[in-house]
Amino acid sequence: MKYLITGGAGFIGGYLAEALIAKGNQVTVIDDLSTGSMDNLAAIIDHPDLTFVEGDILSMDGLEAMAGQNDYIFHLAAAVGVELVVHDPIKTIETNIHGTERILKAASKFDKRILVASTSEVYGKSTNEQFSESDDLLIGPSSISRWSYACSKLLDEFFVMAYCQKANLQGTVVRLFNTVGPRQTGQYGMVVPRFVASAVTGEDITVYGTGEQTRCFCHVLDTVNALQQLADNPDSIGKLFNVGSHNKVSILQLAQQIIKQLNSSSKIVFIPYEQAYEKGFEDMLHRAPNTSLIKDFIGWEAERSLEQIIDDVAVYFNNRG
Ligand code: UDP
Fold first, then answer.
1. pLDDT-based confidence at 189, cuts 50/70/90?
2. Ligand 1 mean position, distance from CA 82 (Å)
3. Pocket of ligand 1 (CB under 6 A)
């Protein structure tokens, strides 16, 4: 099969490209390298089945033709990380909305299947213990730029569903919950690489807010398995799935576990959200997926533990020096 991955030099895209190539497929990656990096493709960059195209999905020529030349499209190109989103909300909105619009038009025109990556951010400030795909969504006000990410991704979801219903698009949507693993950079705010990088160097670990907020961290290899299984199953067309783990932990516990597991001398310090992000920043207190839909559908469940995630990320940082 021939696969096109937008955002394929990103953290998740790189693993997906590796997995698809390992199975004997041909993969074309489009990435503007704004947050993606060739390091994420290092293991396969010289592989004859990989084609890398540097380009911005908002403006590049040839996007439509590339969609037509491939059998399946993974649309992962998006603004990444809360910190980046807060600092560059215009680019976030443009990429997430116009970029997705372009690729959906192309997929629809050539009748190609497409999987679009959305985010658990769309659940917003919901206080449900677990978030289910059919839940109502509770997003904060437009004066707080964090919510532009959730809103733009939500509009992408509506776009996919509308194209499926009105233009026979063969689209699938996934809502990804805190995907983590080796090669993820802490540069755009992600907590696990930040904490592990600090722990291996003995620097202070900075917890935002009280640290009582909880997340469920999912190993990128589990996430990539889910994406491939959904792509392999034509019954996923027109459907939306949560993809996440049940490795639930508070951010303070995460810091403590990382220090203990890595035998680190780091100290934990707390700073207010306002200092970390922007005035009026709103965080989600708890965010956990209900994954019964995807489990019932293809039998997928995240397999890797938080301990393994921390170990794998630590090995990566230690190897990098
Ligand atoms: N966080 C933190 N210290 C950091 C980075 C993040 O305490 O150096 C917190 C952040 O405020 C959030 C949680 O860790 O409550 C997860 O943040 P991340 O950006 O990894 O993902 P999010 O769940 O916000 O999308």
1. confident
2. 8
3. 82, 178, 189-191, 194, 206-208, 213, 215, 251, 283
Domain boundaries, the chain: 2-179+219-244+289-302
303 pLDDT tier (thresholds 50, 70, 90): very high
CA of 61 to the centre of ligand 1 (A): 36
Q: For ligand 1, atom 1, which residue shows the shortest CA distance? A: 191
Average pLDDT over residues 269-274: 95
CB 313 within 8 A of CB 192: yes
CA of 305 from ligand 1 middle (Å) equals 19
Task: Give me the helices (H) in the chain, please.
Answer: 11-22, 63-69, 82-87, 89-94, 100-109, 146-167, 191-201, 220-232, 251-261, 273-276, 292-298, 306-320
Sheet holding 214-216: strands in order across?
248-250, 214-216, 286-287
Domain spanning 2-179+219-244+289-302: CATH 3.40.50.1820: no
- The best mutation among 251, 252, 285 to test binding of ligand 1, ranked by most ligand atoms within 8 Å of the C-beta, falls on 251
**For residue 193, how far is the Cα from the chain centroid?**
14
